Amino acid sequence: MATELLVAGFALSGEFSTNNENYKYTSKLINKNSLKFNKVIREKIKSNDYGHTFIFDYEDDVEKTAIAFTLARENLNISKTKEGLYRAKIRSLGQIMIFNNRDQIIDAIYSFPITFTKIFQKEPSESEIENLFNEFYFGEDNFQIKEVDDSGSTKCNEQITFVNYFDYMLMQIPCIDIKDTYSQRIKVKKIDISKKVKDLLDEKRMSYKSFKQEVGLTVTSMLSTELKMPILPYIDEGQDIYQIKTRFSDSSEKNFKIPDSDFDINIEIKGFNKKMTDSDDIEEQWIYAFQNSFKFFEPLSDTVYFEDVLIGYKYKKFPKSYVDSKNDLPIYLEVMNYFYRDLALSFDAINNTEKVKNKIF
To answer: How far apart are CA 307 and CA 315, in angstroms?
Structure first.
């Protein structure tokens, strides 16, 4: 059913005070030309039919449903191939946020992982990486979206080739259920990390807060992506109702209120490990693994649907001796992404927890 939607524009998800840490290259693009992001959204909406009526100019106190396009993850992984080339891979998480404009209450969030890969003859410079992100957002060369990897699913527009981030995100509007009230909203409520993991984060200079945000995003985004379930953002505080200040690309700010969830998830990341499993004169094969405890429950009734300690892993191949000089943290984050994707694919836990147990690695 077509709906009138107020277009809030583009924003970096979460507290804007952490934008430079969490969204290094996207923040640089916004600082250079903050109006370009919303301009692209407006132009594409006006020239295409996305199934709703969109309103761009409105008063702040108008009580209507609003839509925002946010970036919730910016990961860059640069790896060397056995041919001596360099592969730069952007792994991002785009989100469509539905909220009440007057009350600034988030109704639901839907997530869409997007990856973009480019090969360089030599290790890319900072300026080349910035150009790569500019191409990712605003480029005109076709590239095929793959959600997580070839085994991931795209339940809408899966055969369409997209030219950039905004082209893809706007095409997802007809794929989500925009309605007056929502149920079965999921939130990651609590994330604990062991001392072993904290030591690794300290070594790699990643803050505990950023890591927890990454874990929370990964888990809920996979549920949203694979099952099209509405999610709520994770906030690292022990409260039931949160507010989160978000700055949009046009410099406007909104204090979003986060309502109670219908289902909660508690997680503890216990540890990471790697081991070489095979090698020859050219390359090596390694296994990367992580251990976590996972609890899925209904907070109102305190009904636990699933609780267990789980292990996720993935095999990776690299040029000879390359692993010794590489930062392992991006690989561990990628392993988490694959694992929680597979968990989400089997996560009909509300009705059938056995399906979950049978799917776990």
So the answer is: 26
Q: State the number of CA atoms in the 13 A half-sphere of 219 facing the CB.
A: 25
Residue-wise pLDDT tens digits, 235-284: 766 544 455 667 677 777 788 888 888 889 999 999 999 999 998 888 88
What b-and-e string marks burial along 236-260, b requiring 16 or more CB atoms within 10 Å of the CB?
Answer: beeeeebebebbbbeeeebebebbe
Question: What would the pLDDT profile of 159-181 be if each residue is shown by its tens digit?
Answer: 556 678 888 889 888 878 787 77
Alpha-carbon distance 39 to 9, whole Å?
9
User: How far is 186 from 262, CA to CA, in rounded Å?
Assistant: 6
Alpha-carbon gap, residue 75 to 337, rounded angstroms:
12
Q: Rounded to the nearest 5°, which phi and psi values hold at 130?
A: -60, -40
Going by the DSSP 8-state scheme, the letter that residue 162 receives in this structure is B
Of the candidates 352, 94, 116, the residue with the CA atom closest to the CA atom of residue 224:
94
Q: What are phi and psi of 251, to 5 degrees?
A: 80, 0
Confidence (pLDDT) at 108: 85
H-helix or E-strand containing 66? strand 65-80
Sort strands 253-258 and 242-247 into parallel, antiparallel or unpaired: antiparallel
Q: End-to-end CA distance of the chain: give it in Å, rounded.
A: 40
CA–CA distances in Å: residue 63 to residues 5, 52, 55, 85, 291? 11, 17, 13, 53, 45
Tokens 């840490």 correspond to 21
Residue 210: CA count within 13 A, CB half-sphere: 21
Amino acid in the structure at residue 244: I
The two tokens of residue 104 are: 């600034």
Q: In whole angstroms, give the CA distance from residue 288 to residue 272.
A: 8
Query: pTM of the predicted model, to two decimals?
Result: 0.73
